[in-house]
Design brief:
This protein is an alpha+beta fold. It has one domain: Deoxyribonuclease I, Chain A (4-Layer Sandwich), CATH 3.60.10. It has 7 helices and 14 strands. It has a 6-stranded mixed sheet, with helices on both faces. Strands 5-6-7-8-12-9 form a 6-stranded mixed sheet. A hairpin with a 5-residue loop joins strand 5 and strand 6. The longest helix is centred in the middle third of the chain and has 31 residues. The termini are close together.
Length: about 400
């Protein structure tokens, strides 16, 4: 039996001191030191075996945080773990109190292809694993063949297409050996809800960005563009997930989905929820009103849907707990979960052929304040996302 933890951590703009990431935004040395210490304390508290990070501008800054985490952990071990001379040193409580450092862990960093000059930076992703990796990490951002999504008018006429040749942020795909299994892990950060506005050629900014001439319709169009891009990126991720599942590989997807579990983009990633009974449905090739799927076809359809479906770890936790609410983000009084860990059927408790299952689910969100209040504590330096962590158990 192997137990391990896997976590997702949107760090909010990790970059070194005096380095402008977005226009006129940077950290002083003191602010950077505070952020590094805060992140290290969060990582020490999680003590996760696998961590997926989002909003990493520089690998060096993340390595500094990991080193500081280990320093805090070693100090804690020196203070709380009894030496070999103590007869009670083998008590179970001390196994829980001990911290395992990341000195032998592997780190994969995926820079953003859209990264630019100071003030125009774009963040990437990273994954830290105490188990190392099998093979080289795979970064997916520039699509070898552009994704073309054709549209039709309701009258049947062609209505153009949306083309996606590059993702707004990379996808990071890794194979991680845990116990006697190798798990395919995806780390993602989908397009945000921030509007996507078009800047006319030669202009300094998009017209919709000028709030003194507020354009509600134009800004709504910007939100529409962002949503279409986010859903297209979710489909690219879904295609990769399905390919792994069809190879028979267990899959975990983590990251910042920038939407709740029931949003269309999230459901694209997870796959369809099967109907309870397909035998009452008209067949796709029905010739009369009673031409429906057979009971055998119902069984096969449900099996195919479930075999390709991912389940939210948060949902599994809520299903078996009395907890009322899980959230990783707050803005304008809305508390929701934008950060997810999705698990393939290999880990579902209802699957008799599962290789493992989740024992517990942790949310680190005590630092979250309503982001619509700019002066709220922590809003600049701490993350504006909570961290989520699944506690997993595998049969070897």
């Amino acid at each position: 039996m192997t137990r391990f933890t896997i976590a997702s951590f949107n760090v909010k703009n990790l970059i070194g001191a005096d380095r402008e990431y977005y226009q006129f935004q940077s950290y002083t040395p003191e602010e950077y030191a505070w952020k590094e210490d805060w992140m290290a304390q969060q990582m020490f508290s999680m003590d996760a075996d696998i961590v997926g990070f989002q909003e990493i501008f520089e690998e060096a800054a993340l390595r500094d945080v990991i080193a500081e985490t280990d320093r805090i952990g070693r100090e804690s071990n020196d203070a709380v773990l009894p030496p070999k001379s103590k007869s009670y040193r083998k008590k179970a409580i001390f196994r829980k109190l001990g911290y395992r450092d990341y000195s032998e862990a592997a780190l994969a960093f995926a820079p953003n292809m859209n990264d630019g000059a100071p003030g125009q930076r774009r963040p990437g992703l990273a994954v830290l694993s105490r188990f190392g990796f099998v093979g080289a990490p795979e970064v997916i951002q520039q699509l070898p063949v552009p994704l073309e999504i054709p549209f039709r008018e309701l009258g049947g006429e062609e209505a153009g297409q949306f083309t996606l040749s590059r993702l707004s942020r990379p996808l990071l795909k890794l194979r991680i050996p845990v116990g006697g299994h190798v798990i395919t892990v995806f780390n993602c950060h989908l397009k945000s809800k921030l509007g996507e506005y078009l800047r006319p050629r030669g202009a300094d900014y998009a017209p919709e960005a000028d709030l003194t001439r507020y354009d509600p319709v134009g800004r709504a169009m910007g939100a529409l563009r962002a949503a279409v891009r986010r859903m297209a990126e979710a489909w690219v991720l879904r295609r990769e997930v399905v390919a792994e599942l069809q190879r028979g590989n267990p899959v975990m997807v983590l990251g910042d989905f920038n939407e709740g579990e029931h949003a269309v983009s999230s459901e694209i990633i997870s796959g369809e929820q099967p109907f309870r009974n397909y035998s009452w449905m008209l067949r796709h090739d029905a010739k009369d009103y009673n031409d429906r799927y057979s009971k055998e076809e119902d069984r096969d359809i449900r099996g195919a849907v479930l075999a390709h479906r991912l389940t939210s770890a948060e949902k599994l936790f809520v299903r078996k707990s009395l907890r009322d609410m899980v959230y990783t983000s707050a803005f304008g009084g809305v508390y929701e979960s934008l950060d997810q860990i999705y698990l393939s059927r290999h880990f579902h408790p209802d699957n008799a052929a599962r290789i493992g299952e989740m024992e517990y689910f942790s949310v680190f969100n005590d630092h979250i304040t309503d982001g619509s209040h700019a002066e709220a504590p922590y809003n600049k330096l701490a993350s504006d996302h909570g961290q989520v962590m699944a506690h997993m158990k595998l049969g070897d």
